[in-house]
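We treat protein structure as text, and this decision shapes the records that our systems exchange. The tokens are whole numbers drawn from a learned vocabulary of local backbone shapes. Below, we set out a record of this kind in full and without editing:
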Amino acid sequence: MTTEEKTKEEEEIVPTKTAGAILFCGCTDFKNVGRTKQIDESVFANVNVPSKISTFENENDLEFTFIASGSAAAHNVAIDTKGRLWAWGRNENGQLGTGDKDNRNAPSVVKGIHFGENADGEGEEAVKIVWAACGKNHTIAIDSEGGFYACGSNKSGQLGVPITWSRQKKNVDDERVEFVKSASATQAKFVKATCGVDFTVLTDADGKMWSFGCPQYGQLGHGDDHEYNMKEGTVKLAYEPQPTPKMIRSGDLNAEKDYKVVKVCCGHNHVACFCEDGKLYTWGNGGYGRLGHRVQKDEFSPKMVEVQGGDRNLIPKDAILACGSTATHFSACMGQLYAFGKLKVSGDNTMYPMPQMDLQGWVLRDFASGAVTFATCQDEMTVTWGAGGYGELGYGPEGKKSSACPDVVPSLQGKRTIMVACGLGQTLFLVKSEDVKEGVPVFEPLPETKGGEKKKQGAHLIKPGGAKKAKK
């Protein structure tokens, strides 16, 4: 392959993004977030206004192109302009890829032999990371050559590598505390990844989807949940892990349909995607109407969602798509936002796509769904809503903790948000660097805590914003 051909191929694989600075708000007790509301804020103070993280401020000219968390994830990842992967948060299963199981209060570069620049800064032969995704206890990363890496829990085969398993015994969790590169037999080059609780869906350069992990609700999209009875004479159902990446070729996306997916995302246990044909497809757990098929029924294969307007309301290629724990959002013709599933903690479920009139007329740049929170952005305005309990909506110390309807994040008005990511009790914002040089609070995390233990002395600090000083 000539240099010109290789450059062209890499341009097709590496997503084009705009760089910026990361702001964070929400819970800082990564061990206990989502498990209890009794957080010791004298040590792990909630960050209730989007703030810089001091770790990033200590490096000059540091910008990021990508941020990710997950609706079931208590950890976060980010990719900087050098192709280095940063990770922080809960690490009880090694999901940060740091070589141990110590929680990380502060972001740190993943120091794997396959990642980023070499120790001497000479990164010519180094692999650069271009995409990443977070499950509940695992993380997936994709490099500029189309290879994928995984770390964390592999109990359900969600890492895409072999596991120790038998039908007679309880699954052994083959945790990987460092990123391992998949030795999958497929020759596909992958460009994107998305994770549910304990499964993974990859998109290759040809627009085909591959899945692996837990098949319990049909979320792998292969037409089967691989259910079996663990013990004769009793009813004890279990689900056979599927650790080998397999192309999704069933249902309305079967072998006869030469589909090309544009976007795909995972909720806790369901998947949604739309293809170049402008149609939306969902499968997996159908509870609360999160699949949009008007019934609460699991789907083991991709099934097209009927959207109001039919072929006159096709989904454009630049549409947004996001899955939360029990909800799905997407935009269709003219940018109209639709949603279905359990959209609020209380109230009725929405069983089919319904227009969300609160954001009518908005041209959305990005959208993210957490467990019970949502975030979106357009132009110079960022909006959040949902059942926040840790300040993750970013309304500030005097602002409300929860919001049933979309509301503007006050401190981000006038700032250009490029990308948003929602996790378990936390929200990340990727904002144009020049918009946050001054006047933004700085969050200073505690040092690492082994196994999530609290420090007896010291506490997280949030300092008022000011101009960043250059290193001498």
